[in-house]
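Batch manifest, entry 17 of 40.
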Amino acid sequence: MPLNLAAEPSSAKKLEAVRSEISELDKTLSLNKKTKAELQQQLKKQSLKVSEISRELNQIKQSIAVKDDELLNLQQQLGVTQKQQAKQLEALNQQIRSAFMNAQPSYLKILLSEQSPERVSRSNTYYRYFHTARQQQLETLHTTLQNLTEQEKAIYAVKRNLDELQQQQLAQQEAFKQQTVERERTLAALNKKISGQDAQLAALKEEEKNLQSLLDSLAKKAAKRPPPSKPVKPSERFSSLSGKLQWPLSGKILASYGSQRNLDKLSWKGILIASEKGTSVKASAEGRVVFADWMKGFGLLIIIDHGEQFMTLYGNNDSLLKNTGDTVSAGEVIAQSGDQGVRQTAGLYFEVRHKGSPTNPMQWLRKQG
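Output type: structure tokens
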């Protein structure tokens, strides 16, 4: 059978074309992976910047509140001093008016008169007393006026400082808006990269794996730390707080522990609590912050170590108000909730872990009123 020589180069061309297409697809896939990683880094950077600006805004608000109280206190003091001044002026006016109305003679006139020495002595004592009393009144008035001036200066200084703080706040708010817009754009671009069920499933599995690795690492570090110098009372241990934990914030449960995540057989390892963006997040129990950073899939995340190998996790935050190493009390504000971490849902993601394994937070939290 004769060979079809014309078909051979045609097949070779097709094979080459297929190889070229595969190569281009490999390049595109590699580029997409690189772009996704870059977007994740960009989102992390922007989220941390938003958190930093938000923390500064929070500090400025606290400083403004302190200055407002200081200003109110100074104004109250000023009011008291002004009343004292008015009373002292009135007393002085009465003394002067009394002296004028009585038309008291001069010392010389008394001495040249033909009055008895006893009467002259009494008059002399009276004038000396009157002069001393008036002198004291004038000195008191002078001190009051000095205090008045100092208080007015202090009020002016506080007002000027308050104006500066408010200007800083406005500038930070503008920076906050800009960073938030940039973060939302990055997040939208990232969501496009992981659209599709397979991509989402792979992303979720990777996120869980990364979180577990982090928790294992934190547990190893906790085991190496020396025990507290002050022994913890049994009643204060985390293990005794079942059903007594404070809620990190109040809200409707959007996702329950153990419920399906509509992707393969993955389930929620914690609970998702609905809340408005920027709501204060509180520590559920006393402990030490062992992680305060951005993490893929969990956004800005805080992890608190409570001892006895118990940890609580607070994810999906808009800003973090505590740093790694900080000691926190139960009910202390540690963050502000957001909507950028866990599937772009506004609220807080909360977990309770023991020895690295998730436990049902609802068994630990007290009943909501």
